[in-house]
Each structure stands twice: as structure tokens, then as C-alpha cells.
Write a structure and sequence with these properties.
Mean pLDDT: 88
CATH superfamily: Response regulator
Strand content: 15-25%
CATH topology: Rossmann fold
Low-confidence stretches: 1-6
Distance between the termini: 24 Å
Helix content: 40-55%
Number of helices: 5
Number of domains: 1
Largest sheet: 5 strands, parallel
Strand order of the largest sheet: 2-1-3-4-5
């Protein structure tokens, strides 16, 4: 993974209900030098955003239990208006959200994730 100066203060929240996928993505994020937080559902993700105002990026699955990813995105942005969003999905089309935010199609690689995070941390992708 490439190391760059933008990793400082660019913390990432991962919202994914599959625990194994969650841990793999957390490892990939940490390999880029960033801090990663895990949430297994939208309720946990919103709690993390409330307690960690330093989170700058949320990588979320759209299909989550309790509250789906679309609603999570809306509620997360209400908490932190400048939060950057990345959608991860195994489906071909996620509607409006997939046109508005970067999308990582499952299965994606550590390199693809690192590239999107780097662009968001350096504000090369507007959100």
C-alpha cells in the first residue's frame, strides 16, 4: 500500500454486517496508515459517528440490518455534513446513491479501496 501524508486525520468508519468482510476491510484501511472503526449495522455506525467526530469517511454496504445503507447515509450526513461516503455493493445498480458517491463493487481489492480513500482524503473526489 502506498503511504501518503493525507492519512493523518482521515479516519474511516466501515459499516458492514458481514463480520469477516468488516475485519478484512479494516485491515486494508489500517494498511494505508488510517484509523478504522467497525460497525455491524447502521445503529452502531451512527453511534460511532456521534462519539468519534474525527471520522471523515464512511464506507458502507447498502444492505444492512435494522436501517438500510441509503437511510444510514442520510442520517450520517445529518450528524456530520462534511462526511465523505463510499458505497460497497455486490449488486449492479444501487440507484441514486451509486451515482452520487464512489462505489466499490464486491469483490473489490485492497488497492481499489486504498485509491478511493486516498482521493477522498486529499479532496480529489467531491462528496
Amino acid at each position: 500500500m502506498e503511504d501518503n501524508l493525507s492519512t493523518e486525520n482521515c479516519e474511516v468508519l466501515i459499516a458492514e454486517d458481514d463480520q469477516l468482510v468488516n475485519w478484512v476491510i479494516k485491515e486494508w484501511v489500517e494498511e494505508t496508515g488510517r484509523t478504522a472503526y467497525l460497525a455491524e449495522n447502521a445503529v452502531q455506525a451512527l453511534q460511532m459517528l456521534q462519539s468519534h467526530s474525527s471520522i471523515r469517511i464512511m464506507v458502507t454496504d447498502i444492505h444492512l440490518p435494522i436501517i438500510d445503507g441509503h437511510e444510514l447515509i442520510q442520517e450520517a450526513l445529518a450528524l456530520q455534513a462534511n462526511l465523505k461516503i463510499v458505497i460497497m455493493t455486490g449488486l449492479a445498480d444501487e440507484g441514486e446513491s451509486s451515482r452520487k458517491y464512489p462505489v466499490l463493487r464486491k469483490p473489490f481489492s485492497a488497492t481499489e479501496l486504498a485509491e478511493v480513500l486516498s482521493q477522498l482524503c486529499e479532496n480529489k473526489i467531491p462528496n
